[in-house]
Write a structure and sequence with these properties.
This protein is α/β, with parallel strands linked by helices. The protein contains 10 helices and 11 strands. Helix 3 links the parallel strand 3 and strand 4. The protein starts with a strand and ends with a helix.
């Protein structure tokens, strides 16, 4: 059993540690052009060409290269786990086209679907507002819509259904607005990717909740993907490529 991780920054290292915990016998090969954290390879194309059967590929690289890597891995017929988001906003049309060509088992890394508060969030009714603050531009750049708000958008689509009208505004740092869903419900968003202290909050009539980091969600999500590769039934919380396209 061999797994290839493309991109070995914080996300790649987290998944490598979780893979090692879930599958101690697995061989893990890594590729990162930055040469960070003693990655096995610098060139991900070289890593894809290494001899020996690869069980699956985890794409944890910067999201502006996700589409290129998904295309290459799909051609090889290898299962894919891709960290969110699917791509940058400017690559959305390209991402939609690629989604029609991907045929391998695929999972998108929306680990908040496995958050311990997920069921409670799905039970909320009425107007729901998602609020987030964090200082992440040093890590991701001005990508608030793609990287920071995408979990909330995903949750809103699950809770209220497909979007009928999107009225979201962003300058890359700040995102605000709402989505009108086909169900007639609305979800509201207020995010800032260049703010301290960190806030992750959901408001609704009569209250709401604060969302804490949930390391267990990453493990549960990865475990669900591994079960899928082993022929098990797909966990309904495991995000598909179609889910990723809907969020994009």
């Amino acid at each position: 059993m061999k797994f290839l991780i493309l991109g070995f920054g914080s996300a790649g290292q987290r998944h490598a540690a979780n893979l090692q915990a879930l599958r101690p016998e697995a061989e893990i090969v890594t590729a990162d052009p930055r040469g960070t954290a003693n990655a096995t390879h610098r060139d991900w194309r070289v890593a894809l060409a290494i001899p020996g059967e690869i069980t699956g590929v985890l794409i944890c690289s910067p999201h502006d290269v996700h589409l290129e890597q998904i295309e290459a891995v799909n051609i090889l017929g290898l299962p894919i786990f891709c960290e969110k988001p699917l791509c940058t906003i400017t690559q959305t049309a390209e991402g939609l086209a690629l989604a029609e060509r991907v045929t391998v088992p695929f999972a998108m890394g929306f680990q908040y679907r496995f958050h311990h508060a997920f069921d409670k969030i799905m039970s909320l009714a009425g107007k729901i507002t998602f609020i987030g603050r964090d200082y992440l531009t040093h890590r991701y750049g001005p990508t608030v819509a793609e990287t920071m708000a995408s979990h909330a958008i995903d949750w809103a689509l699950i809770r209220f259904g497909a979007a009928a009208k999107v009225e979201l505004w962003t300058d890359g740092i700040w995102l605000s607005g709402h989505i009108v869903h086909e169900s007639g419900k609305c979800s509201y968003f207020n995010y800032d990717i260049e703010a301290d202290p960190r806030i992750s909050r959901i408001k609704c009539p009569g209250g709401g909740m604060e969302l804490s980091d949930c390391d267990a969600a990453y493990i549960k999500e990865l475990k669900a993907w591994l079960a899928l590769l082993n022929g098990g039934e797909r966990d309904p919380r495991l995000a598909t490529l179609a889910d990723a396209v809907a969020v994009q």
